[in-house]
Amino acid sequence: MTRQFTRIFQVWCLLAITLLAGAFPAVAAEKITLQWMCTATSEAQYAPIWKEMVAEFERLHPNIKIDVIMVARADNWTKFVTAARARQAPDIVGVVIPSAAADGYLLSLQELWDAEPESYRAVWPDGSLSSVRYEGELYGMPHYAGIYAEIYNKRMIKKAGLDPDSLPSTWDEYLEWAKKLTGSGHWATAIMAGPTDTTTRALLSWIHSNGGRAFNEDLTESTFAKDPKSLEAIKFYLNLASRHKVTAPGPATLNYNEQTILFAQEKIATMRNAYWGIAKVLGDNPSLKDEILVGMPPINSDKYTTVAQVTPVSISVNTKHPKEAWEFVKFMLEPKWAVQMVLMANWMPLRSDLMEMPEVKNDSIVQTYLKIGERAMTVPLPVAAWTQISTIDVVNAVQQALQEPDRVEEIFRELDELVTERLNEE
């Protein structure tokens, strides 16, 4: 009787548990929100890609929501630092790694990276990864790159009586073209001296085209004026405005966005820019689709190089969900989205496994940029003060030199002293 009672009791308990389970369903897993702040999301050509990408990620990860924070290029660093100092930085960010890592604002990704299979790590070239390391640690992944070339308006070239099949290859040839491309209400090009690191990238591209260097090899000394080749390039570049009058007015207000607008409006015939600048131009003026030519920046030395900007994606040290953030970072870098970035946003690929994909291999402009990029020097440089140097110190020097063209050498010698101090600060 006791045994029978026990069995009945067990059955009753099992039934009760079953009924209760039906009445009180399991509590759903807590939803995680990851904030992603990136200047790229404010670019019109990237919008369709990131919106589809975020929707797909959220579908595959129903417990994760991506909160996209759009920010203008000029405001990105200030907004990030303000949030980081309050320990409220977004989970995933796109900022200059040396400066942010040195200040302790970024999470080292080294352990997460080391845990990935060799097959994944092998598709990322050392050259790409070196740009996202600081003091030997990985603090980000290469999101996209921009190699600086010279972009021309074929229609304006023909109108000036020049040959679009024979682009200028030297400084002297470029200056000759610039004079012919300048007329009433339009100019050959634009000098960017606005308060962003685009000013520094453009200046460095001219320095490198002369075989000059703005820093010594171990990055302990600034040599903008000390290196004769560097100083010669700075003078030639700034003289396009002060002496030759072949540049658009108001350089102190010109950044990347304003430069591409001038090009789209056919106010300037050439611009020193990366592949992504073309997508921006065509978004503003689709009629230029068949009127754009890309060539090597004019050079003045057989020891020339050009500039390549690598834009990273990193994880803030303030994140509460590093593993989930890492999953999103990897997801946004998958080939499906990377190829779309090449085709729609005109961003250069960084994964080696994309190079043989037909969409990349058969694009003549992409291949031109990749060829130019074989002799590129990557920025930002791995120094903690890079943001200060590139967005403030160099910008101030360029603006001052444009106002006082007779003091160019003196101004850049003063810049060398200031930047050398910054490079050696503890």
Structure notes:
- There is one protein chain.
- The protein has 426 residues and is α/β, with parallel strands linked by helices.
- It has helices spanning 2-23, 47-60, 73-85, 97-102, 110-114, 118-121, 126-130, 154-159, 171-180, 197-209, 228-242, 256-264, 276-284, 322-332, 335-345, 358-361, 364-372, 386-403, 408-423; strands at residues 32-38, 64-70, 92-93, 133-134, 137-138, 141-147, 149-153, 270-273, 292-295, 306-315, 376-379.
- The strands form three sheets. Strands 1, 2, 3, 6, 10 and 11 form a six-stranded mixed beta sheet that branches.
- The longest helix is centred in the first third of the chain and has 22 residues, at 2-23.
- The chain is globular.
**Total number of helical segments?**
19
What gap, in angstroms, lies between the N and C termini? 85 Å
The largest sheet is: 6 strands, mixed
Number of strands: 11
CATH H level, superfamily name of the largest domain: Periplasmic binding protein-like II
CATH class group of the largest domain: Alpha Beta
Q: What's the rounded overall pLDDT mean?
A: 92
Instruction: Please provide the ordered H/E string of secondary-structure elements.
Output: HEHEHEHHHHEEEEHHHHHEHEEHHHHEHH
How much strand content do the residues show?
A: 5-15%
Number of domains: 2
Structural class: alpha/beta
What are the segments in which pLDDT stays under 50 over at least 5 consecutive residues?
8-21, 23-27
CATH architecture tag of the largest domain = 3-Layer(aba) Sandwich
Percentage of residues assigned to helices? 40-55%
Quick one: overall form?
A: globular
Question: What is the third-level CATH name, the topology of the largest domain?
Answer: D-Maltodextrin-Binding Protein, domain 2
Radius of gyration: 26 Å
